[in-house]
Write a structure and sequence with these properties.
Elements (H helix, E strand, L loop, with lengths): L18 E4 L2 E4 L2 E4 L1 H9 L6 H12 L8 H9 L12 H15 L13 E7 L3 E9 L5 E10 L9 H15 L1 H4 L4 E5 L4 H9 L5 H11 L4 E3 L7
Parallel strand pairs: 4-7, 7-8
Antiparallel strand pairs: 1-2, 2-3, 4-5, 5-6
Helix pairs in contact: 1-4, 3-4, 5-7, 5-8
Length: 234
């Protein structure tokens, strides 16, 4: 450090630690985990009594969304309460969403640190209201680990897409969200959709029109596509 004229504040240094806090998470040899104090604050938060109160809680929960497989879908009943001209009414559906997000973050996995020397895989899924994806990687011990989850709610026009179009939208979304890891890397893609044949036909040109024509070069140039059992949105 002296040779390169780098300086450090000794009071802010940590030496020989198993993990260190960094930007709202803890980094260790096993990966990245959510800050337990933030998770505790989310879990202990009382039932919101106003839009302002809910917005504060969601702001805290949103920060940890990468630890939850279907965060956008779970949060939908809550974000609906924050829409313009929405009438405040805390329903049983809102309560279930509130508790589901708490539970999801309390049981969040330790995310793997990406290894640029190993291939990545991307898994995508779509529901009637949201799309989601996960960046995965097999570690040195042969375990498939999650590097990050990402999801978002569908826009009004996107809700009218057929199932295979929603799956393709999820793939495009995943490749954009994870591009910093995927550019120049070996990668495979998978969808949970049972309509895999339609997805493949859409990409191959049999029914390539509109937004599919725009998406397909981007998706096909990034990864081969297969099918994976299960769903984020069960």
């Amino acid at each position: 450090m002296r040779e390169n004229r780098l300086y450090a504040n000794i009071n802010k240094c940590i030496f020989g630690a198993g993990e260190i806090p960094f930007l709202g998470c803890f980094l260790g040899k096993d990966g990245v985990r959510a800050d337990p104090e933030k998770v505790w604050a989310i879990a202990q938060w009382p039932v919101p009594v106003s839009q302002k109160d809910l917005r504060k809680w969601l702001g805290l929960a949103n920060y940890l969304h990468k630890y939850s497989a279907n965060y956008a879908e779970m949060a939908r009943p809550l974000t609906n309460l924050l829409k313009k001209d929405a009438v405040w009414s805390w329903t049983s559906e809102a309560q279930q969403a509130f508790e589901a997000i708490k539970s999801s973050l309390q049981s969040a996995p330790i995310l793997a640190l990406p290894d640029e020397d190993r291939p990545f895989s991307v898994v995508c899924d779509a529901s009637d209201f949201a799309i989601g994806c996960a960046l995965l990687q097999v570690d040195a011990e042969g375990r498939e680990r999650v590097v990050s989850f990402q999801s978002r709610q569908l826009k009004a026009a996107e809700k009218n897409y057929p199932v295979h179009d929603k799956e393709l939208l999820a793939m495009k979304y995943a490749l954009v969200k994870f591009r910093v890891h995927l550019l120049g890397q070996k990668c495979s893609g998978a969808t949970h959709s049972a309509n895999l044949t339609l997805v493949q036909h859409a990409l191959s040109g049999y029914i390539q029109v509109g937004h599919i024509a725009v998406w397909s070069p981007f998706i096909l140039g990034s990864s081969p596509i297969g099918q994976k059992a299960g769903s984020f949105y069960q």
